[in-house]
Amino acid sequence: MKNLLVISLLLAVAQFAAADISVNYGWEGTETILGNYGDIIATIDTDPVHGDSQSLKLVDDAESGTPQAFVGWVVGLSDGDQVTASFWRYDVTPTASPSSRIWGSWCDDPDDITAFAGTAGGQSDYGPGEGWDKAEYTWTVEAGHSGLVIQARTYSSPGDTVWIDDMTITAPDGAEIRTPDYSMALSPDTWAAIKATF
Ligand SMILES: [Ca+2]
């Protein structure tokens, strides 16, 4: 009986240690994206929306290639950590563009979201294209990477427009999840650098 109690306590502790943190973002403020790769126009829109009264509107503006809108950023990761992110995507063109996918890239500099350290892969399907559809992907951290940039990729020609709303990012406790309202200018690291200058 005593052993059973010890085992349940150990299980409880293990479960606590493996706790995850989770953040939701619904584009209800004025912030759009954390950055981008390739030309993409990001604005706040009010129709269509999935939740509340606003969504993110993405317009492909790249002459070639697939532009990426950086919608989330997780730092402080270690090998074996799992990060799951989802957002709702909107297009009404089944089996044709415009379309979007959730994708990731490694970024090992917590002060520079443009520090691309390789693709992390992402979702293979472009969705049904019949209105709102939940896009989701889980990444497992590998090869010593410490940060993951979560992207909305749009396909595939200039002018192609999609909408994104109600993003959820889940990461292990101890990691830091950054959403578009995260201010690089106010990050503790930046303040430390400013103070060190004077
Ligand atoms: Ca919303």
Question: Can you tell me about this structure?
Answer:
The structure is a single chain. The protein is built from 2 helices and 12 strands, in the order αββββββββββββα. The chain is mainly beta and 198 residues long. The protein has one domain: Galactose-binding domain-like (Jelly Rolls), CATH 2.60.120.260. The strands form 2 sheets. Strands 1, 3, 4, 6, 9 and 11 form a 6-stranded antiparallel beta sheet that branches. The termini are far apart. The mean pLDDT is 91. Bound molecules: calcium ion. The site of calcium ion has 9 residues, from loops.
Give keywords.
single chain, 198 residues, mainly beta, Jelly Rolls, 6-stranded antiparallel sheet, 12 strands, binds calcium ion
H/E order of the elements? HEEEEEEEEEEEEH
**Spans of at least 5 consecutive residues with low confidence:** none
The domain count comes to 1
Oligomer: single chain
Distance between the termini: 62 Å
Question: What is the CATH C level class, in words?
Answer: Mainly Beta
Total count of strands: 12
- The helicity comes to 10-25%
CATH-level-4 superfamily name: Galactose-binding domain-like
CATH fold category name: Jelly Rolls
Overall pLDDT score = 91
Helical stretch tally = 2
Topology at a glance:
Elements: H1 2-17, E1 20-25, E2 35-37, E3 40-45, E4 55-60, E5 68-75, E6 82-91, E7 99-107, E8 116-122, E9 131-140, E10 147-155, E11 161-172, E12 176-178, H2 188-197
Antiparallel strand pairs: 1-11, 2-5, 3-4, 4-11, 5-10, 5-12, 6-9, 6-11, 7-8, 7-10
This protein binds calcium ion.
